[in-house]
Amino acid sequence: MIPYSKEVLQHFNKPHNYGKMKNPDGVGEVGNIVCGDLMRLYIKVAKDKKGQEIIKDIKFETYGCLAAIASSSMLTDLVKGKTISEALDFDRKEIVEKLGGLPPVKIHCSVLAGDALIEAIHDYFNKNNKLIPEKLKLRHQQLQKEKQAIEERYKKDKAV
User: Does 65 qualify as catalytic in the annotation?
Assistant: First the structure.
């Protein structure tokens, strides 16, 4: 049995910001066909008093293991209310730290949650015909390549 921290178990048993969002400004969907985790992250963007775009609301739907659900829940707590710029600079390691750690074989769950955020922000920029920052564009392209590589590897493994 894999030992989980108290924080991980709390976020799994009572996930924060769980559910589908009506009319989101951005949606990020990521998954890992090998482990079976699938995450869908929704964001609503608004302007704060300084006129900066912030993540006003965030929700998620995750189909996967305990660590995947807990990581998604923690991510929403960490980025809700942050500016888009702050969310783009978010360090995915913070999810694991705030959860009190994850077993090494489950670290990929926190990475997927961070990737879903990147994809939701990319979708927001794309839908609103906003200039996509180079850093975001490169990260999105990297995620697309990784997804394709995983799917190709999975197809090869299934064929054997």
Answer: no
